[in-house]
Amino acid sequence: MKRDSRLSSVLHALLHMDAFGRPMTSDELAACLSTHPVVIRRTMAGLRDAGFVRSERGPNGGWTIACDLAAVTLFDIHAALGEPALFAVGNRSENPACLVEQAVNAALDDAFDAAEALLLQRFATVTLAALAADFRQRFARHQPQKGTPHA
Q1: CA-closest candidate to residue 45, choices 53, 35, 33, 57
Q2: pLDDT of residue 130
C-alpha cells in the first residue's frame, strides 16, 4: 500500500527553506527531497495559494516562506495539502450486505475516527517554529566542536 508522504515532504522543504534563509529553487528543494522539481512546484503551489510560501522568478528567484512559522501548525499545512488521508488502513467492502462486515467496519470506523481526531488535535499544537527549533538543536549537536573528531 502506497503511503502519502506529502505532509512530511512539505515540512522537510519548509525547514530547508527556513534554514537556508534565502529563496530556494525547485531544483534545490527537489535535491533536498530526492524528487523531481515538477513535484516540488505542484506541491508548493498549494502552499502558495494558502499564503504560506511565495515564489519569485528570475536569477535570484525561488521559493520563500511567506508566513510566521510560530503561527502555522502541522494542522494548517495538512489542510493546505487538501487534507490527505492520514491512515493507509481501510475497511473491507467486498460484501456490504454482510452483517459481519458491517459490524467489523462500524468498529473500525469508530477507531479510525477517534485516532484521526486525536492526531489532528496533536497537529494543531505543533508549529513550524517548534520544528525549526528542534532542527536547529539537532544541527548544533551534530556540529563537531573545535579540537574534537567529526561526528
Answers
A1: 53
A2: 97
d(CA 140, CA 120): 30
The CA dihedral of 13, 16, 20, 24, to the nearest 10 degrees, is -20
In 3D, which of 139, 145, 147 has the Cα closest to residue 20?
Answer: 139
**CA separation, residue 51 to residues 17, 45, 54, 77, 140 (Å):** 15, 10, 7, 11, 30
Q: Which residues does residue 65 pair with via DSSP β-bridges, in sequence order?
A: 53
Judge whether 46 and 82 are in contact, CB under 8 Å. yes
- 147: its cell numbers: 579540537
Strands (E) in 10-150, as ranges, are 53-56, 62-65
Distances (CA, A) of 39 to 10, 43, 62, 82, 122: 11, 6, 15, 16, 27
- Are 126 and 73 spatial neighbours (Cβ–Cβ below 8 Å)? yes
What are the pLDDT digits (tens) for 52-106?
A: 999 988 888 899 999 999 999 999 999 999 998 888 888 888 888 999 999 999 9
Report the amino acid identity of residue 74.
Answer: L
